[in-house]
Amino acid sequence: xxxxxxxxxxxxxGYVLYGKFVENVFGPHNHRTPALKIHDGVDYIPMPLWKxxxxxxxxxxGTGPIFGSIMGAMFGPSAYLWIVxxxxxxxxxxxxxxxxxxxxxxxxxxxxxxGRYLGNRTKRVMLLFTILLxxxxxxxxxxxxxxxxxxxxxxxxxxAVIIFVYYFIATMMPIDKIIGKVYPLFxxxxxxxxxxxxxxxxxxxxxxxxxxxxxxxxxxxxxxxxPTLFITIACGAISGFHATQSPLMARCIKHEKxxxxxxxxxxxxxxxxxxxxxxxxSYFFYGGGAAELGADPSASAPQIVNIxxxxxxxxxxxxxxxxxxxxxxxxxxxxxMRSARLIIADFIHLSQRSITNRLLISVPLxxxxxxxxxxxxxxxxxxxxxxxxxxxxxxxxxxxTLWAFTVYLAQQHKPYFITxxxxxxxxxxxxxxxxxxxxxxxxxxxxxxxxxxxxxxxxIIWFARWYxxxxxxx
Length: 474
Fold this sequence. Notes:
The chain is an all-alpha fold. The chain has helices at 2-26, 34-37, 49-61, 64-72, 78-104, 110-118, 120-150, 156-172, 179-204, 225-232, 242-250, 259-286, 289-292, 301-348, 355-377, 382-411, 417-436, 445-472. Helix 1 (2-26) runs antiparallel to helix 12 (259-286) and helix 5 (78-104) runs antiparallel to helix 12 (259-286). The N and C termini lie far apart (53 Å).
């Protein structure tokens, strides 16, 4: 477990050192934030730091850092490298700037950030893309908890209806009524569960593959490490979905200097959760854990969570596991729908103070989400289909966000390399995955890498020409 402890230390140092550097690059000031200037009693409501941090963590986490890192551990110790470097240099930077640029621009949502720095044409494209992604998130996070709950009691349809009703109520209510009161509790449960599992790992100290042992210990059926690993582990490294969530808390934060613990800190926390569960999965797959726990070595990520929690934490652990795999995705789903409502409202300039205006957007939005879920229920592999496309769309969203931030930093004559390098990397990853993946074009790997490399070169040339015309020439 030496790699785990080194990775944990790296994440903590990443927050202290690189997080401070990113904060200095942005330069928070003392001006009044949108939460104080607008304060509409619905979405713009000042809240204390600890509450905003907990809500931000749960909004961006859900089950992503658990399930994604468990599946990512199938790639072997290389998963540690992506979680650490991805989280510090890409994900946490991405989340911090998502929140801070939103604050600096009056609490604007994701599409408006894109439009402001990449142009209105890109904004319109990304508006549709973002709404579709959020609808997929809403559908996915109805599907998975409904399946789990129906396995305990009741039917899938019964639980799906109950979850949708909750989504609707939470989306319509002021953010401090349900989200502000209940979500910190769910976030605490998710953190406590991870810490308890970590204690179980430390007590066992299993002999696990280390990063210097090479790549022999991995499941080759998962596909090539590049680009598949970087799509499989999204939450815990970098996730474009987070850019739709950070503006929610940007509308509740009282001071810009609180941005680093809220936005950068929540992502580092998610990276730590991902590290813990990647180590649990490594123990399960390669450290004799499956045999020791009497489990099927091919168990799915949710099954591994339940098996480990019940075995190590007893009845209390089972309750925490249930909150992790049921409450957490539900919380992510309803904030996704809330984000969609706000994004549409900002685009059509419809005030959300009135409950009638909220209904005008929410009713058709939920109708479309229900249709997406309904058509995938009929497919035996429906959940996997939604999840696979969600994974690619999620990371593709991060590309546009990172490019928008690169333009912003260049315009401000600040060190834009902190987002340019991740933007170029994710451009290559997402392009290559689209070409090589069986769920998309399924091309030969060499062809996919070649085309991905060409797209990367085109992106570099585009930015160089833009910079020369818009920044250097001035």
